[in-house]
Design brief:
There is one protein chain. The chain has helices at 14-17, 59-64, 80-90, 116-134; strands spanning 4-8, 26-29, 40-42, 55-57, 95-99, 139-142. The chain is built from four helices and six strands, in the order E-H-E-E-E-H-H-E-H-E. The chain is globular and about 35 Å long. The chain has 143 residues and is an alpha/beta fold. Strands 4-3-2-1-5-6 form a six-stranded parallel sheet. The protein has one domain (4-142).
Length: 143
């Protein structure tokens, strides 16, 4: 597998930052798979699948890779975006380019699901996950 991967998160910046010419494997987080074609779909609670063939990576799969990436207080399994980073690392990624990971509420977001507090919690877990991957020689670059 290639060592350069892309993770596409559904934040508003995805459309303005994503390199459409990216030629490595792509992991779509939640509904980002409906905006760009991806090779994998990382979703804790998947809704309607995209209209093309894709490999699904859900909470049950996250548990299965836990022995390779033990939680150790990182809590990467709590959010789809951090689980997507682990998925790329499981396939040997050495560089993960992340698009659309804005880590803040967007206009129109449900405040019960996408609050500033929720994103603050996710950002702490994101940083811990990136540190864990960095210790394993995998760089995460948020664009």
């Amino acid at each position: 597998m290639p060592s350069n991967w892309a993770v596409l998160c559904p934040g508003p910046s995805l459309d303005s930052t994503f390199d459409r010419d990216f030629c490595g494997p792509r992991i779509g987080v939640n509904d980002a798979v409906n905006r760009y074609r991806c090779d994998f779909w990382c979703a804790g609670d998947p809704a309607a699948p995209p209209a093309y063939p894709i490999r699904l990576f859900t909470r049950a799969d996250w548990e299965a890779v836990g022995d390779r990436f033990p939680d150790s207080g990182v809590r990467w399994q709590r959010f789809s975006a951090t689980a997507a980073l682990i998925l790329a690392a499981c396939y040997g990624a050495r560089r993960i380019q992340v698009y659309g990971a804005d880590m803040r509420p967007a206009p129109g977001d449900d405040p019960e699901l996408r609050s500033a507090e929720r994103f603050a919690d996710e950002l702490v877990i994101w940083r811990r996950t990136c540190e864990m991957l960095s210790a394993r020689d995998t760089a995460v670059v948020r664009l």
